[in-house]
Design brief:
The protein contains 10 helices and 11 strands. With 317 residues, the protein is an alpha/beta fold. The chain has 2 domains: 179 residues, Rossmann fold; 114 residues, Rossmann fold, CATH 3.40.50. The strands form 2 sheets. It has a 7-stranded mixed sheet, with helices on both faces. A 4-stranded parallel sheet has the order 7-8-6-9, with helices on both faces. Strand 4, helix 4 and strand 5 form a beta-alpha-beta unit. The N and C termini lie far apart (56 Å). Bound molecules: adenosine-5'-triphosphate (ATP). The site of adenosine-5'-triphosphate has 18 residues, from helix 4. InterPro entries: ATP_PFK (IPR022953), ATP_PFK_prok-type (IPR012003), PFKA_ATP_prok (IPR012828), Phosphofructokinase_dom (IPR000023), PKF_sf (IPR035966). Pathway: Carbohydrate degradation; glycolysis; D-glyceraldehyde 3-phosphate and glycerone phosphate from D-glucose: step 3/4.
């Protein structure tokens, strides 16, 4: 078996630990590995190099992905995938590990249906895949978000200010939800539990009436026009409101121990699935157990984390 590994979609801290685990597990089982650079784009271009166990030493602590990543429209067309098939044949690659998010898995499923053995590893900071409790990168990003919020809080406290902090997540509120659970915010609005402008104002008013004049409002990206929300609160409550979009600072950085361990376990599980002749499946973690499921069960529908929402209700104002 010639095994290829690629990273696709947005980079996520921990992807390198997954690459390391894939290469080492394969080599341990006498399987040669090639790294495909820049995701599906590199696959179509034949941007491929051999990866040995020595090549992947000392990479698990690095953020981003040593293989680089890309979003590739051409691969979404049949023609692009035919091109990829030719390259796989040319390089004698008959099995593939794809590390990425939902989109990357859709592409992987299409390759699987074309007869390539493919297994997916969830690498996305958004944690928006419902089949797995955690995806690689989420924990590191959560810690980055908490760190940023702690700094904003110091200034807000000193100046009695209110700040709206917009965090990533695409259409999933996990980054905002868990940062609030960890003590990062006072009011939270996420796609799963959206607060309208008036509700945010009345929650702020309640805090201010108790002389809590430093307030962090955490919101998930793409939910509101931030400036509109800021102006609405200022008009309604007569206070200055700051806005901070954390943006790309959330993506990079050294992966947390949790992400490194998770990525390592997932890398091993992915290669073991391929060795045992499985294909068309994504590995994940549920209730602390490694699991795998068919690509067709992977989706990003809103996660109804009821228990977590209930806890949040008790912890924040
Ligand atoms: P992230 O969650 O970080 O955004 P992702 O894997 O969901 O990661 P996408 O940009 O959605 O990121 O997808 C990555 C790549 O996967 C796309 O650029 C494209 O090459 C491929 N892809 C996405 N959707 C499909 C599809 N329906 N069919 C074939 N390939 C796809």
């Amino acid at each position: 078996m010639g095994l290829g590994v690629l990273t696709s979609g947005g980079d996520a801290p921990g992807m390198n630990a997954a690459i390391r685990a894939v290469v080492k597990t394969a080599n341990y089982n006498n399987i040669e590995v090639v790294g495909i650079r820049r995701g599906y784009q590199g696959l179509m271009d034949g941007d491929i190099q051999r990866l040995t166990s020595l090549d992947v030493e000392n990479i698990s602590g690095r953020g981003g992905t040593i293989l680089k990543t890309a979003r590739c429209l051409q691969f979404m067309e049949e023609e692009g995938r035919e091109k990829a098939l030719e390259i796989l044949k040319k390089f004698d690659i008959n099995a593939l590990v794809v590390i990425g998010g939902e989109g990357s898995f859709k592409g992987a499923d299409k390759l699987h249906k074309l007869g390539v053995k493919v297994v997916g590893i969830p690498g996305t900071i958004d944690n928006d895949l419902t089949y797995t409790d955690y995806s690689i990168g989420f924990d590191t990003t959560l810690n980055t978000v908490l760190d940023c919020i702690a700094k904003i809080k110091d200034t807000d406290f000193s100046h009695d200010k209110t700040t709206i902090v917009e965090v990533m997540g695409r259409y999933c509120g996990d980054l905002a939800l868990y940062s609030a659970l960890a003590g990062g915010g006072d009011i939270i609005s996420i796609p799963e539990k959206r607060l309208d402008f008036d509700t945010i104002c009345s929650k702020l008013k309640l805090r201010m009436s108790a002389e809590k004049n430093d307030n962090i409002v955490i919101i998930t990206e793409r939910m509101y026009d931030l400036q509109e929300l800021k102006k609405y609160i200022e008009g309604k409550l007569g206070v200055d409101v700051r806005t901070t979009v954390l943006g790309f600072i959330q993506r990079g950085g050294n992966p947390s121990a949790f992400d490194r361990v998770l990525a390592s376990k997932m890398g091993v599980a992915a290669v073991n699935l391929l060795i045992n002749d499985y294909s068309g499946r994504a590995v994940g973690i549920k209730k602390n157990e490694m699991i795998d499921t068919e690509f067709k069960n992977v989706n990003t529908k809103i996660n109804n984390k009821k228990d977590d929402h209930n806890i949040l209700n008790m912890l924040i104002y």
